[in-house]
Structure formats: structure tokens, C-alpha cells
Design goal:
- The chain has 123 residues and is mostly helical.
- It has a three-stranded parallel β-sheet, covered by helices on one side.
- The two termini are 23 Å apart.
Length: 123
């Protein structure tokens, strides 16, 4: 369901910008840590089935923090993310109109904000 209230849209953009800035700070720190990491067996995969339609959920935040902790410990991490491949999306289904398409663009935008581009694998 698209946001139609301009004040709500502005607030949502501001929250996303603030979140993006904070994530960029953590990513910059982790990039320095990864430069000093040793050899590894392979990446640790993270998949979070929580929706990112409205905001970062508590479950999603804990998953992101866990992935950051693993990266800070020197291990490679890959995030498995939906790329509009879940038809139907049970997390984005409008109960009033089950046949309507899921709100993928909102979820994809937040996924691109919170997950580093080179560390994702689409589903």
C-alpha cells in the first residue's frame, strides 16, 4: 500500500536517510576490519524472512547486528535477500485484496539501504 500523505512520505524519507547514514558508518568501520581478516572457509549466510515494507523490524535489526558481529570477527558474510521473487509474498499480502501484487519496491529499497551491495545474494 503506497504512502499518500506527504508528511508521512517526508518522514519516511528522513528516517531512511538517517538509517542509511548510520549504516554507512558501521560499514566503513567493518570495511577496515575486513581488510585485516585472515583466510576463511567460506561465507556465513544470513537470511531474514522479516518484511521490510514499513521499516526495519526488531527481528531484522537483530539479524543485521548478528551479521555485523560475524563480520567484525573477521568472517565473510552474505545476505540472502528477496528480489521480488516471492509470489505471493505472504508478508506483503493485502488481506483486503489478496490478488494485488506485493509492495516489492518498498521492501527492495530498504534491502538496498541496509545490506552492502557486494554482500547480497538474490532469491
Amino acid at each position: 500500500m503506497p504512502l499518500t500523505n506527504p508528511i508521512v512520505q517526508w518522514r519516511q524519507r528522513r528516517l531512511l536517510r538517517d538509517l542509511s547514514t548510520r549504516i554507512a558508518n558501521v560499514e566503513a568501520y567493518l570495511a577496515g576490519r575486513e581488510a585485516h581478516a585472515g583466510a576463511q572457509d567460506g561465507p556465513v549466510l544470513f537470511f531474514n524472512a522479516s518484511t521490510r515494507i514499513h521499516r526495519l523490524s526488531l527481528n531484522g535489526a537483530f539479524s543485521l547486528l548478528s551479521a555485523w558481529a560475524v563480520r567484525a570477527a573477521g568472517h565473510e558474510v552474505r545476505h540472502l535477500v528477496c528480489e521480488a521473487g516471492m509470489e505471493p509474498c505472504v508478508l506483503g499480502t493485502d488481506r483486503r485484496s489478496p490478488a494485488s501484487p506485493p509492495p516489492c519496491s518498498i521492501c527492495l529499497d530498504l534491502s538496498r539501504t541496509i545490506f552492502p551491495a557486494g554482500k547480497t545474494q538474490g532469491l
